[in-house]
Amino acid sequence: MKILLIGNYKADAIQSMDRFAAMLENYLIQFNHQVRVVRPEPFLGGIIAAPVKSRKWLGYVDKFILFPFRLRQAISWADIVHICDQGNAIYTKYLQNIPHVVTCHDLFPIRAGLGEFPEHKTGWTGKQLQQMILKGLNQAQKVICVSEQTSSDVLRLSSLSEKAISVIPSGLNYPYTPMKAKTAQQRLGDLGIPRDSEFILHVGANHWYKNRLGVLSIFYELRLKLQKPNFYLVMVGKPMTKEMHQFIKKYDLSKKVIELVEVDNENLRALYSSATALLFPSLYEGFGWPIIEAQACGCPVFTSNRPPMNIVGGDAAIYIEPNNPQSSAEKIIDNLCNLGEMKSKGFINLQKYSTEIMINRYISIYEKLIDDKTPINAN
Questions:
Q1: Which one in 81, 122, 244, 279 has a CA-CA gap of 20 to 30 Å to 332?
Q2: How far apart are CA 357 and CA 355, in angstroms?
Q3: Does domain 181-353 bear CATH number 3.40.50.2000?
C-alpha cells in the first residue's frame, strides 16, 4: 500500500504526536508498505523576529492556507491517508475522495472549548478552532481511538456512528527495555542524579490535567512520612511552571526535586530502569504512554484510579486518588514492599500493548477501507 501520513506542524512541538507519527512511519515501512509523511511547514510561523502572538497567527496561515495546496498534490500518490492526530482533523474536507483514517488520542481541547472544564477556560479563537476540528472529525471516514475512554468521548461529542469508530490501544513508541544497572548509573550521573539515591519519577508536560502540582504535593507527603535523606523526585518533561517553583520553595524541596528537560529516549530508559517507581497522577489522559513505557523497563507504576489509566496499567499498577496527596502517599508507602511483584506483573501487562499488534490492526483497517466501496460521507 501507499500510505500518506499527515503529521503535526513542527513549530507546535507536540512531541508525543511527533513520536506517534514516527512510530507509524517506521513500522509501516518495516511491514513493506510505501510511506510518505506530509505536514504543514513553518514558512511564516518560523519567522523568529515576529512577536509570539504574531507567530501564532502566521502559523495558522501555514496550516490552514498554505498547507492545503501541498496536501492536494500529495494525496494523488496515496492509496490511503492517515491523519495521525485528531488536532489535524480539519484536513478531512480535502480527503472526501480518498480512503482515510484519523487517530484520536483525546478530546480535551474540544471538551474545554465546550465548557466542560469551567476552571480552565478557552479563549474565543481557541473555541472557533476546536469547533473546526470537531467538524472535521465529523467528516472522517474512520476514527481510531487509542482507548475506550476516548472512544466514549468521540461518540458523545461527535455525530459519528459507532461503526465509524474503532479502538486500537497505542503500542510503545520506542523499544523500551530494562537497562543494565551499570550503564544506567553512568547515564544518571551525567544527568545529575546523585549516586546511590532513590527517586520517584514523573514524566509529563505542563498541561493542567497532568497534575504536576499534585505530583509535588504527593512527593512532599512522601518526604514527611519516609524521612529518607537520599530520596528525590525527578520531573521529566517541559520546564516547570512558576507555580511549581513556588511550591518547591515554600516546602523547602529545592534540593530534592530534580528537573530534566527534553530527555532523549535512552536517558529516559535509564531513568525508568532505575526509579523506585513512576508517579503518574493525571486527572485525565487519552491513553497514558508513560505507564507502559515504565512497565517495559521494569519500573513499578502508581497512577490515578481513573480511566484510561486504571485500564492501561492493568493489575500491575497501584491506583491512587490524584486529588488526595496524603492518601496517595500512604498508599504508595503501603505498597513499597510489593515493588517486585508490580515489576513482574508489569512485564505481563505490557504484552497487551504490542506495537506489532497495533500496526497489524491499522493495516487491516486500511485494507478494508480501500476495498470498501461505501461512499465516504455515508456515516
A1: 244
A2: 5
A3: yes
DSSP string of 36-52, one letter each residue: EEE----TTTT-TTS-H
219-233 residue pLDDT tens? 999 999 998 999 999
111, 112, 114 from 131: Cα distances, Å: 10, 11, 9
**What is the DSSP annotation of 287-351?**
S-HHHHHHHHTT--EEEESSTTHHHHTGGGSEEE-TT-HHHHHHHHHHTGGGHHHHHHHHHHHHG
CA separation for the pair 11, 8 (Å, rounded): 9
* Burial (CB count <10 Å: 0-12, 13-18, 19+), residue 59: buried
- 302-347 confidence digits (pLDDT tens): 999 999 999 999 999 999 999 999 999 999 999 999 999 999 999 9
Query: Which three cell numbers mark 126?
Result: 481557541
| Distance in angstroms (rounded) separating the CA atoms of residues 40 and 59 | 9
Where in the chain are the domains? 2-171+355-378, 181-353
> Half-sphere exposure (CA, 13 Å, Cβ side) for 299?
34
Q: How far is CA 361 from CA 161, 229, 291, 323, 378, in A?
A: 20, 48, 22, 36, 23
Q: Choose among 133, 89, 105: nearest CA to 18.
A: 105
